[in-house]
Design goal:
The chain is mainly alpha-helical and 369 residues long. Helices cover 53% and strands 3% of the residues. The structure holds zinc ion.
């Protein structure tokens, strides 16, 4: 039915609407809203229209008893507008997802495993650091750290644990692994082996770089890139080979000049004091924790605790010293720890074992006497 350009409702219809203002949107069809002042049928009651009744939209709503939040538009028009608004909102979100916030931006949220695990947050439980797998199991830090210390690649840890390689990478980063890039590090004396280890070996033994490559059966230029960048982590297999060379080079027979070569390299003597201090601090923390627990502690429990403390940055070196736990097992086969030991003695004993020298050599390097 064609309506005239200024359709109005009949006066009794208008009275009905004024008595129950909800009818103004539903009386004839959802396409119209009735102006309660003049009875005209409109798509929406605009501010412009209300000006001829000397009203604003707020005053109109107040006069006729509408909620201030309710819209002055017909039902079908409101529906169309809601769809358009939703589309615009989605478009805005979509754009943001395509181009993530820059770091340090107000809206930037570091996306971590833990952020995704919202279910326990809503249950009022403290949020776990580690995401659960689909089967409800969660992978402990210990599992990942141990595999990495043994020199496993990210992909193989991922395959074994069921997490993605990226998740493993981020977990290692949060565990403050000194080398958390794709390259798997070999650890020695509580730190990843870098090109510096080769330089130290050459300095402490009378072998040239060329001689060393010949001993190891490598091409003559194989070691130069690592010597040029001493801060970079060595490839895992090369690092292991260097370790073996070092063991055979520093335990050589007496040279023809008569002096038996020292077992500690000059570089070891320079760094031993710092290593001892870091180890001593960590061990003091361990002892305090063990003695507070006041019971026997399984080594797995201890290792787990060390992981969590490394996460918070309190323990700095112990996690990256895999030999320490092997040594503990050797010394205490029951794999249990009590709080009745002195960190200094343990540190000396362990360092002597780790460097393969006498305790006196360690204490001489640390205290200089
Ligand atoms: Zn009107």
């Amino acid at each position: 039915m064609a309506r005239d350009p200024n359709p109005t409702v009949l006066s009794d219809e208008l009275e009905k609407c004024r008595a129950d203002v909800r009818l103004a949107k539903t009386l004839l069809s959802p396409d119209w809203i009735i102006c309660l002042e003049c009875g005209r049928l409109l798509g929406r009651i605009s501010a412009q229209h209300l000006r001829r009744h000397d009203l604003t939209q707020a005053l109109y709503k107040e006069k006729w008893g509408y909620n201030l939040g309710s819209g002055l538009a017909s039902q079908s028009l409101s529906k169309v507008r809601a769809v358009v608004a939703r589309k615009m909102r989605l478009a805005r979100v979509g754009r943001r997802n395509l181009r993530p916030f820059a770091r340090k931006h107000a809206g930037y949220v570091h996306r971590r495993e833990g952020n995704l695990n919202n279910a326990s947050l809503h249950a009022g439980k403290p949020k776990p650091g580690n995401r659960k797998l689909i089967d409800g199991r969660s992978v402990s830090d210990l599992e990942i750290a141990e595999a990495r210390l043994q020199g496993d690649a990210l992909d193989s840890i991922a395959a074994r644990t069921g997490l993605s390689a990226t998740a493993i990478l981020f977990r290692l980063r949060r565990l403050k692994f000194p080398c958390h890039t794709g390259r798997r590090p070999a650890f020695e004396h509580g730190a990843p082996m870098t090109g510096q280890a080769i330089a130290d070996l050459l300095e402490g033994s009378n072998v040239t770089a060329l001689g060393l490559t010949r001993r190891m059966g490598l091409s003559p230029s194989a070691l130069y890139p690592h010597l040029r960048r001493p801060g970079k982590t060595l490839p895992f297999d090369l690092a292991r080979a260097i370790k073996r060379q070092r063991r055979s080079l520093v335990r050589r027979a007496p040279s023809d000049r008569g002096g038996r070569p020292t077992v500690l390299l000059p570089a070891d003597l320079r760094t031993l004091r710092a290593k001892y201090q870091a180890l001593h601090e960590d061990l003091a923390l361990v002892r305090r924790w063990v003695s507070e627990r006041d019971c026997r502690i399984k080594s797995a429990e201890l290792h787990e605790w060390i992981c969590s403390q490394t996460r918070t940055g309190k323990i700095r070196t112990l996690l990256f010293w895999p030999e320490f736990f092997q040594w503990c097992r050797k010394v205490s086969p029951s794999r249990e720890f009590l709080g009745s030991w002195r960190p200094q003695e343990i540190a000396f004993d362990f360092l002597a074992d780790d460097y393969g020298v006498k305790r006196r050599a360690i204490s001489k390097a640390v205290f200089g006497s």
